Automatic annotation (TrEMBL):
Gene3D superfamilies: 3.50.30.30. This is PRADC1-like protein. The lineage of its organism: Eukaryota, Metazoa, Ecdysozoa, Arthropoda, Hexapoda. Coiled coil: none annotated. Residues 81-168 form the PA domain. The keyword Ribosomal protein does not apply. InterPro entries: PA_dom_sf, PA_domain. Keywords: Glycoprotein, Membrane, Signal, Transmembrane, Transmembrane helix. It comes from Aphis craccivora (Cowpea aphid). The chain crosses the membrane at residues 7-27.
Length: 206
């Protein structure tokens, strides 16, 4: 019996080490199973906030894995647009500021409903894309692979995931300035640019 317990312990320890090496976790959140792979960025998309100066950085987002459409450069060429705070901020119901969203990028917080539902609602409001930020305001590394909620809904706009710390600091600065939208250049494909050469926010460590 003791030998069996030791064997089980050794197997579990080995699996934990493997997961740690590849930095893979499994999370059940917002009705969606996701996996976190922090150091992948080849398929990620970036956007740049051009004002105010305190937020003038290039932000990395991870495209949804199994819903929405890709950030195709022909359909979504990099250009000036607006990142608009959705009201209510979790984007789980038709927004009060739907007119403001038309033709712009919706900015919502994670929680209360699935990633897919947020995307569908933003699309219905006229948004051309959506950025969903994590509700963990201290995290600056977990880039989540968002997948659908296995419902019958389908989305026809692209969706990207932004780490919680960046989302929180953007929200905070917007509240301080009493604004609900930011000028951005979106999307930027930085696939062949080394990560250390990208002007990421100073609070991002990777």
């Amino acid at each position: 019996m003791i030998l069996i317990r030791k064997a089980v312990f050794m197997v579990n320890t080995f699996l934990l080490c493997v997961l740690s090496i590849f930095n893979i976790y499994f999370i059940n959140g917002d009705m969606t199973i996701v996996d976190v792979k922090e150091f992948e960025y080849g398929g990620d998309i970036f956007f740049e906030i051009t004002h105010p100066p305190e937020l003038q950085y290039t932000y990395r987002i991870r495209p949804a894995k199994s819903f929405g459409i890709p950030f195709d450069k022909e359909k979504f060429p990099a250009k000036q647009t607006k990142l608009v705070l959705v009201d209510p901020q979790h984007g789980c119901e038709m927004p009060k500021n739907a007119k403001q969203l038309r033709g712009n990028v919706a900015f919502v917080k994670r929680g209360f409903c699935s990633f897919l539902k947020k995307t569908v609602i933003s699309e219905m409001s006229g948004a051309k894309a959506i950025v969903i930020t994590d509700n963990n305001i201290y995290d600056d590394t977990a880039y989540i692979h968002m997948i659908d909620d296995e419902s019958d809904m389908s989305a026809n706009i692209p969706a990207g995931f932004l780490v919680g710390k960046s989302g929180h600091l953007i929200h905070t600065k917007m509240s301080e300035l009493m604004i609900t939208e930011l000028p951005i250049v979106f999307p930027l494909n930085m696939t062949y640019v080394p990560l250390h050469e990208i002007k990421q926010p100073p609070w991002i460590t990777i």
